[in-house]
Amino acid sequence: MNRGLALVLTEHVEGDVIRHSEIFTPLRARDLPVGHTVTVLEEMGIFLDDKEPSFENWLTERLEGLSPGISAEAERWTRTLRDGGPRSLPRRQGTVWLYLNHVRPALLEWSNRYDHLREVTRDDVLAHTRTLHGHHRSDQLVALRSLFAWAKRAGLIFRNPTSRIKVGQYEYGVLQPLLPAQIGRSVAAATTPAARLILALSAVHAARVAQIGTLMLDDLDIGNCRMTIAGRARPLDDLTLKLLLDWLEHRRSRWPNTANLHLLINNQTATKTGRASNHWISTAMRGQGATLERLRVDRQLEEALTHGPDPLHLAQVFGLDEKTAMRYADSARALLEQAAEQKHQ
Question: Which contacts qualify for 125-134: CB closer than 8 Å, 24 or more apart?
Answer without folding.
Answer: 125/161, 125/162, 125/165, 126/165, 129/165, 134/170, 134/171
